[in-house]
């Protein structure tokens, strides 16, 4: 696979709404899970979430804000941060050579829920005309494109929790094929709404207790909201601009399990194939990997199958690789999770700090890797993998490298 | 009738966060005020509620100016 440079990072999540604040809090290994206050969650299995309390929307006109669900607002905010971070002035670029690749799993559910309520209570006159363009999964892509005048090859990826990582993998391939020079790629998710939380609960993978991936006492994940956008560039384009390069996307692999509509293949065969494909396209030997940012969904078979897949690919070296699930700190961002994990991985490589898996207490004999429990670790990371998985056996893996 | 013009202009300001000085009688809804089709739906529903009138599809479009909107509403109120 052709080298794709990462030159900008924009993050909006409960640990921080800027790169600096976010990364400080991740390194500190703090929990950002708090009781849900936006609606009465007392009858839900899980009553906590990773929520953003200080989302600043002052830069967006009110006329635009009322047409968007929170997932689009967060995507626009993260995009603005990413563009600033990359020192990318879009007015100086060919708009047809820039693309947008966003992933999400749920769409704009808060907008949809409230307007559907109005439809049933008040009839069609009660429904906002903006519902049609606010709720659907490609709304963030559309809003980013309109706001910045971006007109190049773009795509929204909906693949459950693997959406964002697949969107980034896809973006890298489109740049590799020279269809565009620059991609704004990542994901956004706003699941802290009554219906979205209900869907996560009925799926059976949501935790009633703290989110503790790979721990013997784990019983699922906790939801979190946020968005992560990265600026991906053709290497020559980035070098010509002479800006900071965080690192490179080198390899991508994706395979399906084809086993169950919710559960993964218990042996993680599809994931193992995806890991191998990411390593192969990057041209890496397994022993070169210094860190794996895990999916760590926190379900019994999610974590066991992920551990088995890593062991199948890495053999005896598997236990020597730090494998952590930083989403234990801020919740599972579902369709946005892969973007946030990739951002964390680039920051980890930049600073030589591996983020921890928090809430880890009891070892599970079936999950016996080095999960970097509870505290971050200083370690040089040159090459890393990011794993993202969705229901129905979706597996996606990116191989990345520090500059 | 001056009152109707004032109420309509206020609706534009309230619904679309426009500056009062932008909403002139000559302002074209699309070219000058940047209104898209979904905003037209919101405007028409708001006009129907405000003036208790019925507006058919295509009677007011974003090709019109603010003065056209005022005239159409005034005509309906006279009927």
UniProtKB/TrEMBL annotation, chain B:
O-(pantetheine 4'-phosphoryl)serine modified-residue sites: 37
Pfam short name (any one): PP-binding
Swiss-Prot/TrEMBL GO biological process terms: Kdo2-lipid A biosynthetic process; lipid A biosynthetic process
Keywords: Cytoplasm, Fatty acid biosynthesis, Fatty acid metabolism, Lipid biosynthesis, Lipid metabolism, Phosphopantetheine, Phosphoprotein
InterPro entries referenced in this protein's UniProt entry, alphabetically: ACP, ACP-like_sf, PP-bd_ACP, Ppantetheine_attach_site
GO molecular function: acyl binding; acyl carrier activity
One annotated Gene Ontology cellular component of this protein: cytosol
Database matches in PROSITE patterns: CARRIER, PHOSPHOPANTETHEINE
Pathway membership: Lipid metabolism; fatty acid biosynthesis
Subcellular location: Cytoplasm
Domain Carrier: from-to ranges: 1-77
Post-translational modification: 4'-phosphopantetheine is transferred from CoA to a specific serine of apo-ACP by AcpS. This modification is essential for activity because fatty acids are bound in thioester linkage to the sulfhydryl of the prosthetic group.
Family assignment from sequence similarity: Belongs to the acyl carrier protein (ACP) family.
Function: Carrier of the growing fatty acid chain in fatty acid biosynthesis.
The protein's name in its UniProt record: Acyl carrier protein
Organism the protein comes from: Desulfofervidus auxilii
